[in-house]
Specification:
Oligomer: single chain
Strand content: 15-25%
Number of helices: 6
Largest sheet: 6 strands, antiparallel
Radius of gyration: 15 Å
Shape: globular
Distance between the termini: 27 Å
Structural class: alpha+beta
Number of domains: 1
Order of helices and strands: EHEEHEEEHHHH
Number of strands: 6
């Protein structure tokens, strides 16, 4: 059984667990702090997804800064949403192929935006967040599953321009 839960990125001077939008989720929150005031939160949740759009909008309201929220399904894919004070909003999947395969044959699959549309919106979002995003790295990151340890999520936020220290696993 893999990870089910939330990953969310926001710029905040205080721990994410202290924000009203995160407190409404009603679960313990872990986080990593990155340069520039960026914080990546993680909440283990249940098999019942929490709405990433609601969390992203709440993070923007709490912080006044762009935010990203993603519900991860069993390490396989993320249902993601970005939002910002200037209403740069966009829904997308992290690993669209895995997401769409999950719906078949039981449910009608949603019609996600193309990776190119997502990259264009993420570039606008990153510009508003004053992050040096890379369109090529974003395009590559969109097809990577979140992974059991969030490595796909880390790849996405790194491609957005968040300075994520590299780990030496020697």
């Amino acid at each position: 059984m893999g990870f089910f839960g939330l990953f969310f990125l926001a710029r905040s001077d205080q721990p994410l667990a202290g924000l009203a939008s995160v407190a409404r989720v009603g679960r313990d929150c872990g986080e990593n702090v990155y340069p520039g005031g960026w914080r990546l939160g993680q909440i283990h949740y249940s098999h019942e997804p929490y709405d990433a759009e609601i969390l992203a909008a709440g993070l923007v309201a709490d912080t006044g800064a762009p935010a990203l929220a993603m519900y991860v399904f069993d390490n396989d894919f993320g249902d993601a949403y970005v939002d910002s004070p200037n209403q740069t909003r966009h829904w997308f999947f992290l690993d669209t192929q895995s997401a769409l395969a999950m719906y078949e044959p039981w449910d009608e699959a949603p019609d996600p935006p193309s990776d190119q549309e997502t990259v264009e919106c993420l570039m606008r979002w990153a510009a508003e967040a004053q992050l040096p995003a890379s369109p090529d790295r974003l395009l590559a990151a969109l097809s990577v599953p979140p992974g059991p340890f969030g490595e796909g999520v880390i790849g996405l936020i790194s491609a957005l321009g968040v300075s994520v220290p590299e780990h030496d696993d020697d």
